[in-house]
Structure formats: structure tokens, C-alpha cells
Amino acid sequence: MTKMVGILPRMEAEKLTKKTILSGMQPTNDLTIGQYAGALRNWVELQHEYEALFCVVDLHAITVRQEPAELRKRTLDVAAMYIAAGIDPDVSTLFIQSHVPEHSQLAWVLNCMTGFGECSRMTQFKDKSATHADNVNVGLFTYPILMAADILLYNADLVPVGEDQRQHLELTRNLAERFNHHYSPTFTVPEPFIPKVGAKIMSLQEPEKKMSKSDANEKATIFLVDTDEAIRSKVKRAVTDSGTTIEYTEKRPGVANLMTLYHITTGKTYAEIEQEFSGLGYAEFKEAVGEAIVAFVRPVREKYQALRADEETLKATLRKGVEHARDRARKTLRKVYKKTGFVEF
Ligand code: TRP
pLDDT per residue over 30-74, tens digit each? Predict the structure, then answer.
């Protein structure tokens, strides 16, 4: 095997030895500790085991209105945050989705193989058309098809995403199978990788609700760019309940959520946490959680700021990433075009 790797181009060699993962996030807001816990954390772990591609999905972002300068800035912000959170651009392929035109090109072919009803069933579409009732555009409707293109273009085996993306993954699998069946085997049918324990971080203000980057109440969300003071204050004001003991139970979602945050930022198990705070009250517990999050977020934020202060280097990193991504994307699209019946010169 080692000998074979030596004589094959990098891409081929990696395909032989490693499976592929791909994921992406929209550059629509600052990233939250919830996105770290639910997604980024897994990306960082998986990148060594898999051939990993991570993109910033700016094409998806314009399904809701974006201010151009803001979108441009946020796209680089998110790329920098990927790196700050532990994605190593020398190990993983990091790129901006719109830089690989094959995503849009494959999406068109897949559009023509997707039923109207399939898209209408998507719960995220229904939710977003309700929250953006003044701009229910066709892009919002076909959003999951573009996501399928992102994934199938690289023949990803595994797609680490949050639970809310399961339905989109299901559509992606159906489209892959449909194309393979209608033409001939072309796409890998991807599996979702959805973490179970300790993945879901809830709002600090309404702990029955998922923590969201777009929550109107900013006390509800911890951002990875938050200052130490902001973090301490948000945790202190986090909604708990009238209980007194630190126990992990669904009946007390506020305390359970803080325990999850403590677990994520310290690596301690729930049993260890219960033990540590037995006999202590909410005030001491919140103080410890606040400090744990501060200690965790600070190096990420500082690394992020350093990366963001040197935009040329960041762009060079993304330029390197896109070259590798395009090599792979081009190959797949060529096959797809050929099978579809487009004339090739
Ligand atoms: N729809 C995903 C989300 O909102 C983002 C996304 C776009 C994505 N393309 C993808 C995730 C491809 C994984 C793979 O979270």
C-alpha cells in the first residue's frame, strides 16, 4: 500500500486509504458554542481519520437576504473560526463554496431529478418560509438540492451535521441512489454522522429551546467571539429553576444545559460533575461553569483574532484549499455531464 501511495497523485492515494467526510456552515452570523459542541468539535476529531473537506456555504446563505459587505466579511470570519476551533488546513481541505462552480452546476442537474413534492416536505423550508415570509424565494425551496450537490460532488461517505439536517441528508441519499440507478453507479450514498450525547446546547434563557445564533435575546447565546466578561455575565444570568441540587435530569433543562456546557468545556462526565457539586448551590456551580467556558473560549477567540488580523494569509489558505476541492469536483461533474448526455469536446 505504501508503495502504491507513492506513485499515485495525492487525491487518488487518499481515496484508496481514507474515507471522505464533508460538512459546511452558513456565514450568516458569529458561530456559537452550540455549533462548536454540535458540529465543529466532531469535525476536528474526524479530520485525522478521514479525508476531510469543510466549506463555508455562502451560496446557501443568500437564500435569505444578505448585505454584500457583511456576507463577504462573515465568510472569512467563519473560515477563520474553523481554523481557530481546531481544523488544521494542512490536514483538511478548507474552502468557500462559491469558489467551486461545480456545486451550482451539479445542483442544476439534481434539480431536474427532484420532485416538487420532495422539496415541499422539507421541514426547514416550512420553518424558514414562515420566518422569512416576505422572501420565500425558489432558492430557499431548492436549498437541500444544493446541499446534496455539495456532498455528492466529493463522494462523501460521512456527513457530520446536526439533527436538524437529517432530512436533508435523507434527500441527498435518495438523489444519489436515483442517479446511480437511472444512469450507472456514480455517487457514494452518504451516511449522516449525528452526535448523540452532549451535542445539543440549549438557550441560556429558554432552556427548552436550542441555542441559536440568531436569537433576538443575545443573553441566550454564547458566541465563540464573546469576551470573558460577556460569558461570565451570560452564564450568571442563565435561567435555571427553583431546585437546589446539581443533577442531570430532563425535568430541569436549565441545570442540565449548564452541565452539558461544563462537560463540553472540561471533558468531565455528568457523574463527575454531580459529584463535584454535591452539597453546593447554583451560585457556585454557575461560577465554575462560567470560568470553564471562559477558559475554553479564550484561546479559540484569541487564535481567531490573530487569523482575522492577517487576511492575506487566510485567503492564501483558502486558495490552496479550493484548488484541491476543484480537482475532485471537476472529476465528478465531468462524469455526471457525460452520463446526462451533454456533448463533450
Ligand atoms: N444546511 C447545512 C446547515 O444549515 C449547511 C450545509 C450546506 C451543509 N451544505 C452542506 C452541511 C453540506 C453538511 C454538508 O447546517
Answer: 999 999 988 898 999 999 999 999 999 999 999 999 999 999 999
Which of 59, 165, 187 for a ligand 1 pocket mutation test, highest count of atoms within 8 Å of Cβ?
A: 165
Question: 3-state class of 67 per DSSP?
Answer: coil
Q: Please compute, for residue 296, the number of CA atoms within 13 A of its CA located in the half-sphere on the CB side.
A: 24
Question: What gap in Å lies between CA 341 and CA 185, rounded to an integer?
Answer: 16
Which pLDDT tens digit goes with each residue over 157-197? 999 988 889 999 999 999 999 999 999 999 999 999 987 65
**Cell output for 309:** 488580523
Helices (H), ranges, 67-165: 68-84, 102-111, 116-120, 123-131, 138-152
pTM of structure:
0.91
58 lines ligand 1 (CB under 6 A): no
Cell of 172: 441527498
How far apart, in whole angstroms, are the C-alpha atoms of residue 18 and residue 155? 12
| Cα 55 from Cα 48, distance rounded (Å) | 17
CA distances from 320 to 95, 311, 316 (A): 8, 14, 6
User: Looking at this protein, which amino acid is placed at residue 230?
Assistant: A
* Inter-residue contact 337 to 101 (CB < 8 Å): no
Residue 96's beta-bridge partner residues? 56
Q: How far is the CA of 176 from the centre of ligand 1 (A)?
A: 16
| Contacts made by residues 254-259, CB under 8 angstroms, sequence distance 24+ | 254/207, 255/282, 255/285, 256/207, 257/201, 257/202, 257/204, 257/207, 258/285, 258/286, 258/289
Residues taking part in catalysis? 128, 210, 213
**Average confidence score pLDDT of the chain:** 93
Domains and CATH numbers, the chain: 10-199+310-340 (3.40.50.620), 218-307 (1.10.240.10)
CA dihedral 123, 129, 132, 135 (to 10 degrees): 140
